[in-house]
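Incident log entry.

Two folding requests arrived from the same account within the same minute. Monitoring flagged them as a possible duplicate submission, but the sequences differ. Recording both here for audit purposes.

Request one:
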Amino acid sequence: MKRAALVAPVRTAVGRFGGALRDVPAESLAATVVKETVRRSGIDPSRIDDVAMGQSYANSEAPCIGRWAALEAGLPISVAGFQTDRRCGTGLQAIVTAAMMVQTGAADVVLAGGVESMSGIEHYTTGARWGTKSGGLQLFDRLDRGRERSQPEWRFGRISGMIETAENVATRCGITREESDAFAVESHRKATLARESGRFDAEIVAVELTDRKGNVTQFRADEGIRPDTSLETLARLRAVAEGGVVTAGNASQQNDAAAAMLVVAEDRLDELGLEPIGFLDSWAAAGCEPALMGLGPVAAVSKLFARTGAGFADFDLVELNEAFACQVLGVVKEWGFEDLDRLNVNGSGISLGHPVGATGARMATTALHELGRRGGGKALLTMCIGGGQGMAAVVESA
């Protein structure tokens, strides 16, 4: 089977919830990375067969956002597009789906990635179309509602949201508040060092912002990294649940961002004049108990290793999305993985943020650039997924 080559991965900087990217709609963020991937790769846009764009909080402002982003970016009308959703694994799933398309000969070139504008996620009602005989209509916050309804309640009981699942993992795996805070401090330290040393510069494309006076600025630095994070500052934060472990300081952020790359059939690289940065080697997805969704990477990585014969010793980098510090610590404890020097070397969800639909593509982009800086190697990418799933994939430097 053909190998799936990865070309010109880019991302926007990650914006804070309600921050610099608050008024930039998801379709504009997606179009920004689509245009930059095309520009950097030098590909003739007419040779792109499809655009696979992940988005977890989709709506009808930009339906089928892969197609919308292609049109917004000025790609030829002949370029098709579609949308994927696997919650926290969405951006990675878009890349995987694109890889399967080129490996099977269904396409030669697919532009794949993910986007999320969590600042722009709307409130909605399910009762307005047919009206009500009396009383008011309830508005749901799509952010909260998506977390509350991530599994059928009749089967699994009520789960209030992802924080509850994280606390379940902390209890099961014996993870303390102090351990969680220490992990969060380290995440911000790594991300601060990466940003200040310029490690992210090559992968980030600027987003142009125009203020009310018409002044244009460029947003190009991850907004959620807090260099002053310390054990002392985190210790002052109140746990979300009474007596719990999770706080606003040791959990992932809500964010706005986009990331994309070309996924190309290896035998078409020379013809198209494309230089790959790496390849997608393998992947797996697996289910787990929704109440313990944070342990999804344990099941996914186990499935991937069983399928490929790989083990942790085969990887130079391990990228495990930081949904919650206690969740990451629970996963590595279940894995028996002790070499934390290879884990999230440039930070992750706690420091860089977790723009849900974009996160998997952001992780792949950052890992590929980091492998290139190190002269090659392999990275394991994995994340937990709301509703009780995990996803894992292997990328290798070209």
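Request two (distinct sequence, not a duplicate):
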Amino acid sequence: MVEKAVAFAIKSHEGTFRKGTKIPYIVHPLETAVIVALMVTDEEMICAALLHDVVEDTGVTEAELKEEFGSRVAELVMEETEDKTKCWKERKSATLEHLEQASRESKILVLADKLSNLRATARDYYLMGDDLWQRFNEKNKSEHAWYYKGVAKRLTGLEEFPAYQEYVKLCEKVFE
């Protein structure tokens, strides 16, 4: 099932790149899946990590995911999917609110996704400095700090994972 999810994600994200870079977008879902695989052995969780952005960023529907990968994978992906009709602040506030009562599985997916994003942000921040924030829809560094630190506070129960510890350290380095 994981190989099928890899192929599905590659096809879905074909021709897209990470914001402001020439890095193929698929690198992010693959890294997210590796981070999840270091925390759990659950294949459906790993598949959800691989597919976490397909509904949000491509033409794939929840129904297609359910048909291809089953209800649980589709539900996990949908928990992680932002409503792109809303502005940045509304989307991020909704994620933080969701994390208040999210399942451990959902928190693991969020941690992996946000750690992958924060690794890329930290790397580029060291190279570009504050010019980095211009590539994002939200250009205010303090808003990104609010969001990433808010995620860290809400990932209760995951503190024992090295991924969580790395996430917190990167937050400190990038935002303080």
